[in-house]
Give the backbone structure.
Amino acid sequence: MNPFRIIVMFFIFVINLYAQDINLLTNIENRQKQSLNGQWKIIIDPYETGYYNYRYQPRTDGYFENRKPKDKSELVEYDFDNSEELTVPGDWNTQKEKLFLYEGTIWYKKSFQYKKKNNTRSFLYFGAVNYEAIVYVNGKKLGEHVGGFTPFNFEATNELVEGENFVVVKVDNKRKREGVPTLNTDWWNYGGITRDVDLIDVPDTFIKDYFLQLKKNSLNEIFGWVQLEGKETLQEIKIEIPEVRKTIKIKTDENGFAEFHFSVDLKLWSPENPKTYTIKIISQTDSIEDKIGFRSIDTRGNELLLNGKSIFLRGISLHEEAPFGGGRANSEKDADTLLNWAKQLGCNFVRLAHYPHNEKMIRKAEQLGLLVWAEIPVYWTILWENKDVLANAEKQLTEMITRDKNRAPVIIWSVANETPVGQTRYNFLYHLIKTAKELDQTRLITAATEIHSEKNKITLSDSLSNLLDVIGVNEYIGWYGGTAEDAPKTSWESKFNKPLIISEFGADAKFNLHGDAHDRFTEEYQANVYANQIEMLKKIPFLRGMSPWILTDFRSPRRPLPGIQDMYNRKGLISDKGEKKQAFYTLQNFYRKMVK
Ligand code: GCU
C-alpha cells in the first residue's frame, strides 16, 4: 500500500477517534428538528439550593424534577410554572436589569409536546450555554457540558415520552481560576442559554458526521469521510454533487466509517466568488444535504496562498455581541449587520474573537465571502499545568473544529491569545496544536502573540511561532505604549520566514468626542493611531494580513471610565449605537486603495 495512503488512513483514523469522542452531531440546520427556542421559565438560584442540600451534597430531589405538590400538605419550595421567564436563545444580562451583573446559577425549564416515532432516535442539541450546563429531560439527567461557546448534544430517545415533556437546564456562568477562559477577560461574561436549542430526530442508524474538503496542495482533489452512528454500520453510501453531475459510491466498515477521495473540477470558493455546491450524502438509512465551498489555503515562506494565489487579509476583529448594544449575538440578522459592516470597510477577512462564534456567523461569512480566523478562549493567563484545564481547552477546540470543518471561509484555527511566554504554556499549546493538526490538516494554525518594542525595533522572538503556520501579533503602539507617531518609525524583524498577521492594534474613542489628535478617547486620536499604524504596516515585508481591534464598541467590566467608557471598551470603529467613527473611514480608504 503506498505510504501516502497509510499516512492519510492514519490521520483519518485519529480524526475519527476525536470526532467519536465528543459524539457531536453536525449540520443541524439541515436535519429534522423541533426548535425549543422561545420563552423558558427560570429560577434564579445564587446558592444552588436547587442542586445542593444544606450539607452541600447534591440533592436527589433537586429542581430538575420540576416537582408539583401532590396535595396541599406536601412541601415543594419552588414552582417553575409560576416563575419568571427568559428568552432562549439569549443572555440573561441584557434581558433583566437585576441580572446585568449576575454570575451564578439560573435554572431553565421548557415544557414541550413530542410525538414518538418508530426507528427514530432523538438528540437535544444546544448551540452554546455559558458556562456550565447540566441537562435533564423529564427529571432524568442526560449530561453535563463545560465551555460557553461550543455546541453539544445529548441523546434523549429513552427519556422522551409521547405528549408532554419538559427539559430542565442548570446554567452556571460563574468564572473560575481553572476555567477556559479563566477569571479575567476583557469581555462581558454573558450568562445563559445563548444559542438555539433543538430536538433533533434521526433514524436508528444515521449519518452523524462527515468531512469534505480539497486535499492539501490540490485544487481539484477532494478527500473526506463519513461516519455513521447506529447498529447498521455496513452500508453503501452515495456522495453527490448534482450541479456537476458527480456521484461516488463508498462502503462503510464495521465501525460505520468510510473515507474517500476523488477528483472533480469545481469553481473554487473565494471572497470575490463565494461559490458553494449542494452536496448530498445518501446512506441506506439516512440522507443529509449541505452547501459546501471548496478552496485551498496554504503558506509558502511568508506568503499566504488562497487557491494557490498570494493573498493579503484585509480584516477586522469582532466580538459576538449584537449590534446596537444588544448582548450576545445569535441571530442571522445580527450576523448580517456585523459582517456587512466589515464588507463596507472593504474587508475580505474577519477575526472572530476570542471564542467560537455561533454557526450563523460562519455561514453568513460563507455567503458574503469573508475569510475567517476562528479561536478558542485560551486567553491571557490560564492554569497551564492543570491537566483538566488542558482537557477542557482540547474539548472546546475539538467541538469548534468538528462543527466548522466543512466551512470554506474558515482558514485559520487560533489556539491562544496573549499568553505568557514560558515552558508550561509552550507544552500546553503544543498539545492543542497537535490536536488541531490531527483533526484538520487542511487549515492553518495560529495564535495571537505579544511583542515588545525596543527603540522602535520589533523582533518576533516568541518560540511558540516555531509551531505556528501563521504568526499573529497584537500590538498597541500609540495606545498602551509610545505615541501614534512612533509606529511609522518602528521596524520589524522576523527569523521565522512565516506570514505575519497583525491580529490587533487600535485605540479607544468615544463617538462624537472631538479634540486634538493627541487627546485620548477622541475620534481624532483614534484616527491618528490608525493613520500611523497603516504607515508602519505598509513597510513590514512579511505582513500578510491585519485585523484591527475592533469593529464595534463592546461591553467589558474592565472599562469603568465614567462618561466615556461606562463599561464599554471603546476601541470600536463603530459605536454601540451603530455610529461610524472617523477611523472607520481611515481604514476603509486604506483597504479601498489596496484593491484598486
Ligand atoms: C488585548 C486583548 C483584547 C482586549 C484589547 C484591549 O489585546 O486581546 O481582548 O480587548 O487588548 O485592551 O482593548
